[in-house]
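Incident log, structure service

09:12 report received: a user says their structure output differs between two submissions of the same chain.
09:20 pulled the input from the user's history:
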Amino acid sequence: MRDPKALALFQEILRKTEAGKLLWQPTAEDKIIATMLGKYTLTLTPYTSLSPLDEPQGPPSVRLQDEKENTIIEIHNDIEGIAEEELKTLLVFARRIALQADEKIDEVLQELQRPDITIDTARYGANDKWFDVAQRLRARIRDNRLTFKVTNEELGGDPIPGVAKKLEVVYLQGDQRYAKSVPEGGVLSIR
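09:34 re-ran on a clean worker, output below:
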């Protein structure tokens, strides 16, 4: 079906969505997202229609409604110039905006790209009485993090009873070398 206005509207919706200019939001209906344009609502559905058994059929579609929920136009791949692939692209970008996926992906990427922690040396004690606790600390690293309270119990015993102790750690994160000293009862936190 030839509909130049529907094609122009769709192309502008796709362009603005790819540029992150439309604020798509999740709706109460599962997998359906929408955005407001003044007094109009654009609704993006991941299918064209529902079968008699309520099963989704066809590629994504877009519906424009006015403030009274009258459908102004439905945009789908039966309109000349609108390909199924473009509708799928719109759905992907709109869903990423609605779910704030880019921010979440950036957060995960940052976490994955963070340099690994490697314990070089670690000792617990005071004066001339120290326990080598490097292996114990290496074993406690989880998800590239190391956090725990510095106590005799956590570090394998009391190397010098009755004396205030500390934990001294030298570690690498990527190619950077760091040192931390934490008093007994304090919390070691390496991220």
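09:41 both user submissions now match this output. Likely a transient worker issue. Closing.
09:42 reviewer note: The CA atoms of residues 74 and 128 lie 80 Å apart. The two ends are 58 Å apart (CA to CA).
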